[in-house]
Structures are given as structure tokens and as C-alpha cells.
Amino acid sequence: MKIALLSAFYPYRGGIAQFGAKLFRALETKNEVKAFTFKRQYPSLLFPGKTQFVQSGDSADNIPAIRILDSINPISYSKTARKINRFEPDVIISQYWMTFFGPAIGSVHKKVNTAKRVSIIHNLIPHEKRFFDKPANRHFLKYNDGFVVLSEAVRDDLLGLKPNAKYLLIDHPVYDQFGELKDRLETIEQLGLDSKKKYLLFFGFIRGYKGLDLLLESLSELDENYHLIVAGEIYGSFDKYQKIIDQLHLSNRVHLFNDYIPDAEVTNYFSVADVCILPYKSATQSGITAVSHHFEVPVIATDVGGLKETIEHGKTGLIVRSAEPELIKKAVVEYFTKNMKPSMSENIRIKKVQRSWPKFAERLTEFIETL
Questions:
Q1: Secondary element (H or E) of residue 74
Q2: Span 184-353: which CATH code?
């Protein structure tokens, strides 16, 4: 079929752009796919990170996307729809991850005149509430024929707002673009770490709802053999976390790599990690699980949103019943005391075959044909 794919793509960076690139490559093997992306994604004043764009040296997939949509310029909504209409697609597939994009994506879908309209929803109810969330979601949801959700939590949010929605529930595919694991001892030396320590990994953008503060409190209750690697760009200020580190005397046990991690360097942190920790206070699903599972690194996560749907408790990771430092600490101690990594890594190796991008693309196209 002819597919118009509307998403963040290169030169934008981050999880949505990576998801879009992997989906484009999976779909183009059996379909005619044209990619459309943002001319302006976020106004610079509203973007909390250092940059929205791929930097020199990053190995991001340069998808040949047409840069046309301006998230805050309604004129571009019509212009984007006209460009898509000239392509005459059978379906437009969009990615939706923030209510900020509800007016733009909803309006493009409204103006696409022949194609089926499908959206892959990463988040529908925001972690951080804003006054425009409800009207933006109403506008976006109105102009879709079908939805793809990646967790039961997002499905429930969708049906709460649109009870008659046609949807496909499917697991987030494993991110496999980051290469293979490297030699652990060599990588530990490269990062300036101590090979005798146990390493917990907190990976990805640092935002309030992700619970890094809880993990730091947990670390203070563990003995000095436990160290924490924090690898990812801070959104906002790191001051509150630094204050916890200083107050709890953790500076020699917390190793900060607080910049955006280019694709080629992701393997460094997972090559060293004994376990990946998601101490989230709220969530839908997480792309970090998809990265961790690519490297066959088990995950300890709090029981929020849809995190537990891709982590089998006791088999591929551990689920902590609530976001509390003491419970996170107990899970970490259990994991290391019972030497869970070897068996869990083997279980992940078996399971991740079922979560490939070709399988995702196949299920997606089958769903579209039913609409």
C-alpha cells in the first residue's frame, strides 16, 4: 500500500524520531512509504533540553523526510495535508506522544481527504498536566479511523476518552540499532569506573516523573559496593538531584553522564550495567525497556502504567509494587543476592525475537486493512 508516515524524523533526535526511523525501514520493504516531518517541532522557548537536533557524530538514520509541518503555525497544517494528498496514500500513519501536537496532527488528519487515518499513541494522558490537554486530545482523537497503542495503560486511556475507538494493542518493538555489547572490563576502564563495583543504570532523559530522586534515596541505603550510572540529558534543572547526592554523601557512588547519549555510545552504558532501573512515579510504557532488552540487560521497574507488560516479573526483570525507595532497594538486593542476571538475560534473548520491527509492521498493516 501507499503509506504517508508523519512523525519526528532526522534531523530531530530522541525516542520518537528513532521509532519513526525504525518503522519507516520496516514498512518500506513491502510498501511505498513517504515520510513527512516537522519544519519546526518545538519552539525553542518551550524546549527544555539543549537541542532538538542530531549533532555531528551521531549515527542517526537519515530518513528522507519532507520537512513541512510547523507545530504552531496553522497555515502549515493545510500545506502539509495538501502535500500528503498529492501523494495519494492509502493511509496516513502518525505518531502522537504529547498533547502539544494535538492541534497540528489532528488538523492534518482532518484535511487529508482520501486516506485512512491511523495514529500510534505513545502517551495520551500527559505525565505533566497542562491546561490545553483535554481540548487538544479531543481535536486529535476526532480525526482518526484507528489507533495503535503500546500498552494496556494507554489503551485504557484511549477508551476512557473514545469508548468506540478501533485499536491494535501491540508491544513496543526492541530497539536494535545500537550495535552489540562491548567488552565489560574495557568499557569500565574507558568510562573511568571501578570493575569491582555493582552498577545500576538510570538511562534516558531525566524528568521529574522518572523518579531519579527515589533511586538516589535507595542507593543511600545500599552498601558502598553499589554504584549508580546516570546517563542522559537533564530536562530542566539538575539542582534537586545534586542536592540529594550531596546531602546523602553519594558523590563517589553516582557517576553522571548528563548529556544526550548518541546512538554509537549507548552500548557503553549497557555493557557496564548489571541491571537497568526504571523508578518511575508515572508511566505509560518506556522505550528504555526496548533498549535494555536489545542488550539483554534485565530491568527493575516500578508498577506504574504499562511498564510491567513488557517485563515478566522474576523472568526478565523485577516489578516493584510502588515507587518507594525502600521497595526499590529490596528489589535491587534480591536481584544481586539471587544472581538473577544470567537466567533473566537468557529469557530476554528468547522473548525479544517476538518483538521485532518486521513483525510490528506486519501486524500494523494487517490492522489497517481491517479499517
A1: helix 74-87
A2: 3.40.50.2000
- Report how far residue 241's alpha carbon sits from residue 26's, in angstroms, rounded to the nearest whole number: 39
Residue appearing with cell numbers 522518572: 210
Contact 188, 195 (CB under 8 A): yes
Q: Give pLDDT tens digits for 56-111.
A: 767 789 999 999 999 999 999 999 999 999 999 999 999 999 999 999 999 999 99
Burial string for 210-248 (b: 16+ CB within 10 Å, else e) reads bbbbbbbbbbbebeeebbbbbbbbbeeeeeebeebbeee
Separation of CA 290 from chain center: 8
CB atoms < 10 A from the CB of 249, how many?
A: 9
* Class of residue 39 by CB neighbours under 10 A (exposed 0-12, middle 13-18, buried 19+): middle
Q: How far apart are CA 204 and CA 212, in angstroms?
A: 11
What pLDDT, on a 0 to 100 scale, did the predictor assign at position 186? 97
- Phi then psi for residue 258, to 5 deg, are -90, 60
Q: What is the pLDDT of residues 251-304, one digit of tens each?
A: 999 999 998 898 899 999 999 999 999 999 987 777 899 999 999 999 999 999
Fold for domain 2-173+356-370? Rossmann fold (3.40.50)
Residue-range domain boundaries for the chain = 2-173+356-370, 184-353
Nearest to 286 by CA among 271, 306, 262: 306
Three-state DSSP state, 261? coil
Q: Within 10 A of 153 (CB to CB), how many other CB atoms are there? A: 22
Predicted confidence (pLDDT) per residue in 99-145, tens digit: 999 999 999 999 999 889 999 999 999 877 888 999 999 999 999 99
SS3 110: helix
**Topology agreement, domain 2-173+356-370 and domain 184-353:** yes
Q: Give dist(CA 335, CA 329) in Å, integer.
A: 10
